[in-house]
UniProtKB/TrEMBL annotation:
Its EC number is 4.1.1.35. CDD domains: UGD_SDR_e. GO terms for molecular function: UDP-glucuronate decarboxylase activity. It comes from the Bacteria. InterPro entries: Epimerase_deHydtase, UXS-like. This is UDP-glucuronic acid decarboxylase family protein. Coiled coil: none annotated. Pfam families: Epimerase. Its cofactor is NAD(+). Keywords: Lyase, NAD. Transmembrane segments: none annotated.
Amino acid sequence: MKRIVITGAAGFLGSHLTRRLLEQNHHVIGIDVLSTGLISNLHQELTHPNFEFLLMDISNDVSEELEKIGHVDEIYHLASPASPKFYQNDPIGTMRVNTLGTQNMLELAKAKKAKMLYTSTSEAYGDPEVHPQPEEYRGNVNTWGPRACYDEAKRLGEVYCYEYHKRYGVEVKVARIFNTYSAGLRNDDGRVISNFVSQAIRGEDLTVYGDGTQTRSFCYVDDNIRGLQMMMESDLATGEIINIGNPKEYQIIEVAQLIKKLANTDSNITFHQLPVDDPKVRRPNIEKAKRLLNWEPIIELEEGLLRTIDAYRAKHEADMKQNVV
């Protein structure tokens, strides 16, 4: 049994990873400040005998609290707002958790001689001029705009990882995560899949920003979590940056139309002004993940969307019944 720390444990990816590791009989220490994570995401895990939850802001000096954790084998540093809606609402906190928070977790990894995985983002590529994006591409990021608090903070977090690996030999791996989805996304998250599915099951207009020709690649959460675990386990991933995402690319308007069809809704599709610095294209080159990890996604978009729609609809119907009662 490994002792594993997960920051951002009450968030979307963190709660899925917590569940998976507990199923695999590991001891999990979940850390979250609950700024965007929801404690309800962990309602079953909170009573699990191998789970500890610490309400903690890792951006602060928490060295004394972390020392009390005891032995640690692995650290998954997932803490950070990830939706533009949330990170633009708290830009300073977003920068802090990805810089000071990352350094604090690297210090913990150094002190405990633990392996660490840092979840960076495809946003590190900005509005890319190279397509699809390989890990070697240095990106096209605007440092003076509303997305910079997330994009540049994640990039600086990667630099912290580089320095701790080179200077102190910390066994750190960096995953650049592309769009990930499933029913676990908050329905007020503001990201495209959660927006479209929530609107579709309520019979509301599906809001497309821009003309819908911008592209994204969507990875179902099970594939993502499997990739992160394979990175953690692989010595070949130590000291490396690896894209984790689905290389199949879709126009946003295609996704809206597919969700309309799968949800069997009469919702209209409406078009709105594109947000500042919204990338026009986004698609990972995953050759490195294939070569080093033997990983690639296996769940097709239609299957993942059906699972997501079914779960959102069940929750929506349950909420409606509760309100009626």
